[in-house]
Amino acid sequence: MTFDRFASFRRIKPQRRAPRLIHRADADLPLVGGTPSTRRDLLLDTCVYIDLIQGKLPIPAKQLLASKILNHSTVALAELTHLFGALDPAHPGTTGVLKALSETVDDIREHRLAAPSARACGEAGMLAGLVTRLTGQRNTVALLNDAILFLQAAEIGCDLLTGNVSEFDWFDQLIPGSGVLLYR
Fold it and tell me: How many CB atoms lie within 10 A of CB 17?
């Protein structure tokens, strides 16, 4: 799939004039356990892997993981493997963290790992920029990566599972029905 700037402008509408985005109440969010069960496969945000490693993933999210086909993004893979270089080897906890990360990365099935398309990457820049303008949020690589994951999930027909309620609430407000499942 190629990047068609004109089609993406029509889809994302990055120059739209809109009121400032604010976070919705939990009752209005697509929270795991609070919404009907999805029939679609899942794409996992990086925080899901980290919460699972740390034992912080809520039980409803764990149950969802056990019942769905799990897909993985090269964006999340890059965010996870970034830690191999970023963590201080002199820190006493680094060895254990890297062992857990290694096991997690090694468990990703190659046939379930996919890269985002050029369209998802191009539109993610527009979406992240729009969120930056409408929220006052800093423009960061993390926000851009989250937008890529959000659009990649929609593009491949998966629901994106994430505990990052803040950014994904904004994305879901701007492009409703794209398929995001949130947990706290």
Answer: 6
